[in-house]
Amino acid sequence: MHIRIINPNTSAEMTATIGEAASRIASPGTRVSARHPDHGPVSIESHFDEAISAVGVLEEVMAGEREGADAYVIACFGDPGLLAARELTRAPVIGIAEAAFHLATLISTRFSIVTTLGRTGIIAEHLLDQYGFSHHCRRVRAAEIPVLDLEENGDAALVRIIDECRRARDEDNIGAIVLGCGGMADLTDTISHEVGLPVVEGVTAAIKLTEALVGLGLGTSKHGDLAFPRPKPFTGRFEGFSQLTPAR
């Protein structure tokens, strides 16, 4: 089984962190290839960043289709380009926020999210509504750290995240914590040990869900709105998308 995990930002360091965490949790026989776009934002912290990064996500899915990937994971907590990516393939495509929400509800009746910045917390709230998990989530909390601090000032960032997770435990009446950034993929065990609650992180959650879907022979439906996009001309920088045809 080959799972292509896509970091939608252009940070090679974060891509390596994500890929290592995914490979550690993957089953024997599962190959994980971690990729990021060549062009786009170095971190994703706004609606604007998400919109720009979505094009790179789609290009990485198209490359994966040519290489025969069995499934895809979009490793940004905003799940940028998720539905568009599903249009391009029959393979399963899972966003890490979507995966984390699902698994958190299987081990607790209420959870809180701890993310990086307050403004991205609002994006997480939108996803909770969209996916139908708002009633499971007590609160979306922000450690107020830039995403790149997870790589550049990792120790200080971890302290702030743990402090916010402890506040969530003590104040929110929850059973689990969801980490709200792909760059936190390697922090689960440390935070769970320090806080004493189950901690769900989306990269690792998504890997196990994609393995399950591939194992069950379930792929993205091509009936209705997730059918392959209708071929049509594109112009300018997107001319390469013209007459798009599925690789398989």
Explained architecture:
- The protein has 248 residues and is α/β, with parallel strands linked by helices.
- The protein is built from 9 helices and 8 strands.
- It has 2 domains: 2-95 and 204-241, Rossmann fold; 97-203, Rossmann fold (3-Layer(aba) Sandwich).
- The strands form 2 sheets. A 4-stranded parallel beta sheet has the order 2-1-3-4, with helices on both faces. The chain has a 4-stranded parallel beta sheet with strand order 6-5-7-8, sandwiched between helices.
- Strand 7 (176-180), helix 8 (188-195) and strand 8 form a beta-alpha-beta unit.
- The chain is globular and about 55 Å long.
- The model has no long low-confidence stretch (mean pLDDT 95).
- It comes from Halomonas fontilapidosi.
- Belongs to the HyuE racemase family.
- Keywords: Isomerase.
Which key terms come to mind for this protein?
four-stranded parallel beta sheet; isomerase; EC 5.1.99.5; 15% strand; single chain; Rossmann fold; 2 domains; 248 residues; Asp/Glu/hydantoin_racemase; alpha/beta; Hydantoin_racemase-like; Iso_Racemase_Enz_sf
Helix-strand layout with pairing:
Elements: E1 2-6, H1 12-25, E2 31-35, H2 47-67, E3 71-74, H3 82-87, E4 93-95, H4 96-107, E5 111-115, H5 118-131, E6 137-142, H6 149-152, H7 154-171, E7 176-180, H8 188-195, E8 199-201, H9 202-215
Parallel strand pairs: 1-2, 1-3, 3-4, 5-6, 5-7, 7-8
Helix pairs in contact: 1-9, 4-9
- Supply Rg: 17 Å
* Overall morphology: globular
Name the CATH architecture of the largest domain.
Answer: 3-Layer(aba) Sandwich
Strand content: 5-15%
> Mean pLDDT, rounded to whole units?
95
Proportion of residues in helical segments: 40-55%
Secondary-structure element order, N to C: EHEHEHEHEHEHHEHEH
The DSSP helix count reads 9
